[in-house]
Design goal:
With 360 residues, the chain is an alpha+beta fold. It has 12 helices and 12 strands.
Length: 360
């Protein structure tokens, strides 16, 4: 049934419309399409939190001066298999791809690469970078921090002190699609709360606290003032992972850590420590791929529990969502769509132009 609070969009016209808006920030055509492709891909993979709903925030960050366009990654440390890269506050979609391309080349050369990427604007869905490595046959681990207004409370705390600090691991397989484990260390990504808020939905208990530290199910507490906080997943375990991501993704990458209040600013900076490994250089007698195949076959032989149709591994839900959404299109809620049109008008692009592009 069609949702009258949303509109259905097709992927390619939406890419064209988003690229037009991003070009309005001054991005060259290549960068505008990189950003648009990345955002729409997140929607296609079922992660609307990291999709085109980010466009209004990017436009605001550009207008505030916190997001710089047409930047290239600046290599500050080059020590063979170790790279230290400054993103120069550029679009994470373009800087991230270029930085990962460099890291992949070093991992091919040395068998491993450790890359610190700091001072880059929002990197989007971190699974995208693990997919880039996995498509080249490389294992990758990514620890990311978020420099914006803190929105996540530590275990035992009643106020926010850090961001959603994602962790991601990508593992290529020989006879199957790669494993892409990509998760926020908060119970859920903040963007998913924005989507729920725009749809007028409540969320389940155990995700949020209000500004007084009291549990709530209203996602507005991490979207509009006064702000409360998200909680970490798994209580102290998620908090421990968030702490690790802050120190590795923020401090070790050179990007910096979250240790001060940020009021009103819309920019979102990420730091990411990535470790890339060529399994063929560590492997003996094809052991890695043979054992991976054997374990997955064993895993999938398990009886299916009531209420489930199959056992899915990390990355599989995204691939299923993409097949369905590429075929049928997907919904963008009307509140988010209105925000996107408003963002375009801030750049002098008429809403009618964006509507026309999306309508094909």
């Amino acid at each position: 049934m069609m949702d009258d609070t949303a509109r259905v969009v097709r992927p390619q016209p939406l890419r064209d419309a988003v690229a037009r808006i991003i070009a309005g920030t001054g991005s060259v055509e290549r960068e505008a399409h990189q950003v648009a492709d990345n955002l729409v891909l997140a929607n296609l993979k079922g992660h609307d939190s990291h999709g085109v709903g980010m466009v209004p925030r990017y436009v605001d960050a550009y207008l505030e001066g916190g997001l710089q366009v047409n930047r290239e990654p600046l290599v500050r440390v080059d020590a063979g298999p170790m790279l230290g890269i400054d993103g120069q506050f550029g679009y994470g979609q373009s800087i991230g791809e270029a930085a990962m391309t460099m890291a992949i080349a070093r991992a091919r050369q040395h068998g491993v690469c450790v890359m610190g990427l700091g001072q880059v604007h929002h990197l989007g869905r971190i699974g995208h970078w693990a997919e880039q490595a996995a498509n080249q046959g490389l294992v990758s681990l990514h620890f990311v921090n978020v420099l914006a207004r803190p929105l996540v409370a530590p275990w035992g705390g009643a106020a926010s002190r850090f961001g959603t600090n994602p962790c991601c691991i990508g593992i290529p397989l020989r006879n199957a699609d790669p494993i892409i484990l990509d998760y926020a260390t908060s119970v859920v990504a903040q963007g998913k709360m924005r989507v729920a808020h725009n749809k007028g939905q409540r969320v389940r208990e155990g995700m949020l606290i209000d500004p007084e530290g009291t549990p709530t199910t209203d996602p507005a507490v991490v979207v509009t003032e006064p702000l409360g906080a998200l909680l970490t997943f798994g209580e102290y375990k998620g908090f421990g992972m968030a702490l690790v991501c802050e120190l590795l993704g923020g401090a070790l990458s050179g990007g910096g850590t979250c240790h001060q209040e940020v009021h009103g600013q819309r920019r979102v900076y990420n730091g990411m420590l990535s470790v890339l490994i060529d399994p063929a250089r560590l492997d003996r007698d094809d052991h890695f791929f043979r054992e991976s195949d054997a374990f997955l076959a064993w895993l999938r032989s398990v009886p299916v529990a009531p209420g489930f149709d199959k056992v899915r591994v990390a990355g599989e839900p995204e691939r299923e969502a993409m097949a369905q959404r590429e075929r049928d299109g997907f919904e963008v809620d009307l509140a988010t769509w209105s925000e996107i049109l408003n963002a375009a008008e801030k750049l002098g692009i008429a809403a009618a132009q964006v509507e026309s592009a999306v309508s094909g």
